[in-house]
Amino acid sequence: MRLFLLTTLTMVAFAANSVLTRAGVAEGGLDPMWFGVIRLAAGAVTLAGLTFVLRGHLQFSGAGRVAGVIGLLLYIFGFSLAYTALDAGMGALILFGTVQITMFAGAFLAREQTPLLRYFGAALAFGGLVWLLWPQSGATDIDGAEWFMAAAGVGWGIYSLAGRKATDALSGTAANFVIAVPIAVVFVAALPVVEPPSFEWGGVWLAVISGSVTSGLGYALWYSVLPRLQGTIAAVAQLTVPVIAMAGGLVILGEPLSLDFVIAAAVVLGGVGVSLIKR
User: Fold this and answer.
1) Confidence at residue 76, expressed as pLDDT on a 0 to 100 scale
2) Contacts 24+ apart (CB under 8 A), 265-269
3) How would you write 164-222 as a 3-class SS string?
4) CA nearest 94: which of 134, 148, 149?
5) CA gap 273, 269 in Å, rounded
6) First to last CA, the chain
7) Cα–Cα distance between 5 and 104 in angstroms, integer?
8) Rounded CA gap, 265 and 151, in Å?
């Protein structure tokens, strides 16, 4: 039950990231690349401070460190760029669909024993997600935003697989963020198409909140539960995030409740439940 509650809390943090990033880059007036840099920096400061207070030092070495940093950078920038043109629903579908494929592939390469019923549950949950989020008017040209989100999904899948090797969740997450910050700054500053940040304070504060709370602390929590989850279970669990995000829109933003949402949410959660059955 404790593991279930921690995993649920982590999924809520992931859902909040979609809302904050979409608001920061689409409405907050902040360049998406610099939004990613500020998000990383805020997370690094928060996590490094907590690590020094609780551990007394910050350890940069560790299993899966290189893969974790690469996956984190790919996710952060792909995620930010995608939400300049992609609506939250379709973005969530592409992101967590790609995450699921990446993590199932990682589990297969690692020869992790996966019950056939888990594949069925994953397919059922993903089908419910497609039904809920697929645009009714058909596909539209959104200038490659789908590819950015797919890249973010691959990055997050790599980051999650690397996190299963973490022995200290807080220290490992802090090291990933601290190492990623200078790499991100150099990369973004070197891009000729990226203008200097305008520091629209609405977008800056959203990036800080996303980085320090829902990313930094949320990812540390995720690293703490990953070693106790099989890769395929961790992949399927994340399919609940789009449903949580849309439920948050119903409660917080007063969006209307539809029958499609109720049915699709039941299918997604039912698929996740089937995946957790051992036999």
Assistant:
1) 93
2) 265/128, 265/132, 266/128, 267/124, 267/125, 267/127, 267/128, 267/131, 268/125, 268/128, 268/129, 268/132, 268/239, 268/240, 268/243, 269/125, 269/240, 269/243
3) CCCCCHHHHHHHHHHHHHHHHHHHHHHCCCCCCCCCCHHHHHHHHHHHHHHHHHHHHHH
4) 149
5) 6
6) 20
7) 23
8) 26
d(CA 268, CA 121): 9
How distant is the alpha carbon of residue 219 from its chain centre? 9
pLDDT tens profile 210-225: 888 888 888 888 888 8
For the entire predicted model, the pTM comes to 0.79
Nearest CA to 175 out of 187, 163, 161 is that of 163
Q: What is the mean pLDDT of residues 220-245?
A: 77
Cα(220)–Cα(174) distance, rounded to whole angstroms?
8
Kind and range of the H or E element at 126?
helix 116-133
**pLDDT given for residue 123 in this prediction:** 80
pLDDT reading at 139 higher than 60: no
| Alpha-carbon span 242 to 262, nearest angstrom | 13
How many angstroms separate the CA atoms of 252 and 231, rounded?
32
Please give the pLDDT value at position 140.
47
Using alpha carbons, list the distances in angstroms from residue 151 to 44, 72, 131, 155, 269. 22, 11, 22, 6, 25
Cα separation, 26 vs 202, whole angstroms: 11
DSSP label at residue 256: P
Task: Enter the tokens of residue 260.
Answer: 């499609």
| Residue 173 identity (one-letter amino acid) | T
Gap between the Cα atoms of 220 and 170, Å rounded: 5
pLDDT of residue 168: 84
Q: How many residues does the chain have?
A: 279
